[in-house]
From TrEMBL:
It comes from the Bacteria. The lineage of its organism: Bacteria, Pseudomonadati, Pseudomonadota, Alphaproteobacteria, Rhodobacterales. Residues 304-362 form a coiled coil. This is Chromosome partitioning protein ParB. Residues 8-111 form the ParB-like N-terminal domain. Keywords: Coiled coil. CDD domains: ParB_N_like. Residues 386-410 are annotated as: Disordered. Transmembrane segments: none annotated. One of its GO terms (biological process) is chromosome segregation. GO terms for cellular component: chromosome. SUPFAM superfamilies: KorB DNA-binding domain-like, ParB/Sulfiredoxin. InterPro entries: Chromosome_partition/occlusion (IPR050336), ParB/Sulfiredoxin_sf (IPR036086), ParB_N (IPR003115). The keyword Coiled coil applies. It comes from Meridianimarinicoccus aquatilis.
Length: 660
């Protein structure tokens, strides 16, 4: 059937919805937010397509064009719109009253129109600007959208014609085509397109973006933002994009030159301030390349009267801040502010109590690199040719005090943390004793006999035979890992305590005790001895060689009895955590990624990692996570000649320490 629909004009106020309109049961279609673009277009360009109407009950019912009708009513209600009232007439086409295919007409109007190709839309926006003289602002007003959204479409419409043609021909995907907009220069786009497609094969958006990176640095990148002012001052070419953040600094070599100069200046400033012999810079700190470098550390110095007064003030303030940070209801912003203050105070206290020796300063230096969007300083490095080697070691050096310098992977601790770690280690050793009754029985008997026969000259400070449990003082007793406590509790549950009956006379209890099997007696003695272990490990082989050897025998791996947790990590500085991840555990990429995160986020990452090593770890990384513990808690296979902690002073920044 062929039907002609007569044209006519109808006042907007005389238009009503038609019950046969196929969208009539979808009122959300006409919500103001869903017709905003259409409303803006009609306001600027007018009604481009007539409405299809049918006369019903003296009104004109809109059979097709319901969204246009809704937009017209919105324009009437909008006082800011000019020229639209209920009496304003719009173009329509009239469907005869006797027509019996009204629903079919409405449906045909809605489904027979092919959706617009995305590339057509992009190119249309570009033509509006290039041919019609429109601006992103006027286009946005026409379509009721934001200027940023218009610029986004324009960028795709301005991609090199050959690349757009390839997308139309399905040679590349739409996403791949969009990737070329990462660089505003059509010339650079085309060169990359030609290079990537010359051998055929499937072209991916990721490959395009990576190739375009070699053609410059976007100003939105952290490096681009860091060097841009100097780059433009030197006349560096900038490929301007409609969206400023996508503009590109085209001379990548000049960008790197300026970056290295700025890094070098920061390194030189640190060299002068700290007194090092040399300064250097590198864009990315290469841990593999730097493996042959040694490192020196500041040693303790005696503060003068003024310095000591300031240290006391800092200590008091740190204690106050620590209490504030323990508030579980603290918002992240407030916590981070407290953490930054703590970090600054600890750094100030460290500078007052530590210094590099003149000998170390004469052969060491500082390297500045770019990491996590900021300059990172790596201090106290010793070049391979200047490193003092010791037997079988690489990159080792002596400390300013003449004592053995800590290993490059080692972190030393403030006195309070060191004491708590000793306590946790003593508890782990107690658990190991309870699980090795025969060896512990021998130790206890030997200790008892040698103490008596040697006129009180103790062979170990770690075991007390005084018939009472040892109280182990710990600042965070409710937050430590409970593995050792659970193991000791399990050992207690397995004891034969049938002889221990308070209703019996002591002689009867003793008789029952003597009647126990040797193995049961050994368990009892081991448990009792385990309960008397103290947190007094000096880790000095000469001072306590007995306990050192015994500990290695029954506890070669402390991780069987203890696991690092969030409570421990929260007491570490952010720089320590990044150093442990990057150097000790081999998770260098994760350390770089987390460098810009808050300490709370890094603590959560470490806690999850140690609770259950990630499936994505390599075998080497997994082994490192399973074995890691603070160096002062290590036993077998580790050089343990540590010096006692000196004062309540923070650890110097590691090589991931952030520049101020």
């Amino acid at each position: 059937m062929t039907t002609s629909f007569a044209p006519l004009t109808v006042a907007i106020g005389d238009l009503v919805p038609h019950p046969a309109n196929v969208r009539s049961n979808a009122p959300e279609t006409y919500d103001p937010e869903n017709i905003a673009h259409l409303k803006a277009s009609i306001a600027v360009l007018g009604l481009l397509q007539p409405l299809l109407v049918q006369k019903l009950d003296g009104k004109y019912a809109v059979l097709a064009g319901g969204r246009r009708h809704a937009a017209l009513k919105e324009l009437i209600a909008d006082k800011a719109s000019k020229g639209f009232t209920a009496k304003t007439k719009v173009d329509c086409r009239l469907v005869p009253e006797e027509c019996d295919v009204t629903t079919a007409l409405s449906l045909a109007e809605n489904i027979t129109q092919a959706p617009m190709n995305a590339i057509d839309e992009f190119e249309a926006f570009a033509r509006m600007m290039e041919v019609d003289g429109q601006t992103p602002e006027t286009i946005a007003k026409t379509f009721g959208t934001t200027v940023a959204a218009v610029k986004g479409r324009l960028r795709y419409g301005l991609i090199h014609p050959d690349i757009r043609a390839a997308a139309r021909g399905k040679v590349i995907t739409l996403d791949t085509m969009k990737a070329f907009a990462e660089h505003p220069s059509q010339e650079a786009q085309h060169e990359v397109f030609e290079a990537l497609t010359k051998d055929g094969g499937y072209l991916q958006a990721y490959t395009v973006r990576q190739a375009l990176k070699s053609r410059g640095v976007q100003v939105k990148d952290d490096i681009g933002a860091f060097v841009r002012e100097d780059y433009e001052a030197r006349g560096g070419a900038v490929a301007a994009d409609l969206l400023e953040e996508h503009s590109v600094l085209e001379d990548a070599a000049l960008v790197e030159t300026i970056l290295l100069e700025k890094l070098g200046a920061t390194a030189e400033e640190a060299r002068i301030k700290l007194g090092f012999a040399w300064a250097d810079a590198m864009v990315r700190y290469d841990y593999a390349t730097m493996a042959d470098y040694g490192r020196v550390y500041p040693g303790p110095i005696e503060p003068d009267e003024a310095a000591q007064k300031r240290i006391d003030e800092i200590t008091a303030e740190l204690e106050k801040l620590q209490l504030e940070m323990e508030d579980e209801g603290l918002e992240d912003g407030a916590y981070n502010a407290l953490y930054e203050r703590v970090d600054a105070l600890e750094e100030e206290a460290r500078d007052l109590q530590e210094a590099y020796s003149a000998e170390d300063l004469a052969r060491s230096g500082v390297i500045a690199s770019w990491s996590g969007g900021q300059v990172t300083l790596h201090v106290g490095l010793v070049r391979p040719e200047d490193t003092v080697k010791k037997e079988g070691a690489r990159g080792s050096s002596a400390s300013p005090t003449g004592e053995e310098a800590p290993d490059a992977g080692e972190v030393t601790y403030p006195a309070s943390l060191a004491e708590d770690l000793k306590t946790e280690r003593a508890m782990a050793l107690g658990a190991a004793m309870a699980l090795h009754p025969e060896a512990t029985l021998d130790l206890t008997l030997f200790k008892l006999v040698s103490d008596v026969l040697a006129s009180g000259m103790s062979v170990t400070q770690a075991i007390k035979i005084d018939a009472r449990k040892e109280y182990r003082s710990h600042a965070k007793m409710d937050e430590i890992d409970e593995t050792s406590l659970e193991q000791v509790a399990a050992a207690h549950d397995a004891l034969d305590l049938s002889w221990l009956d308070d209703t019996r006379a002591p002689a009867d209890q003793f008789a029952a005790f003597r009647a126990l099997e040797a193995g049961e007696k050994a368990k009892l003695v081991a448990y009792a001895t385990a309960s008397t272990t103290q947190s007094c490990f000096a880790r000095d082989r000469q001072r306590d060689s007995l306990m050192h050897a015994f500990e290695i025998e029954i506890m070669p791996d402390i991780r069987v009895h203890w696991t690092p947790n969030a409570a421990l990590f929260n007491r570490f500085k952010k720089a320590w955590l990044l150093k442990i991840l990057g150097e000790d555990l081999g998770l260098a990429q994760e350390a770089v990624t987390l460098a810009s995160s808050s300490k709370k986020e890094i603590v959560a990452f470490c806690d999850k990692l140690f609770a259950e090593p990630f499936a994505t770890l390599t075998d080497a990384q997994r082994a490192a996570v399973v074995a890691w513990c603070p160096p002062m808690m290590q036993t077998a296979g580790v050089a343990c000649d540590e010096a006692e902690p000196i004062e309540e002073s923070p650890e110097p920044d590691s090589e991931v320490a952030q520049a101020a």
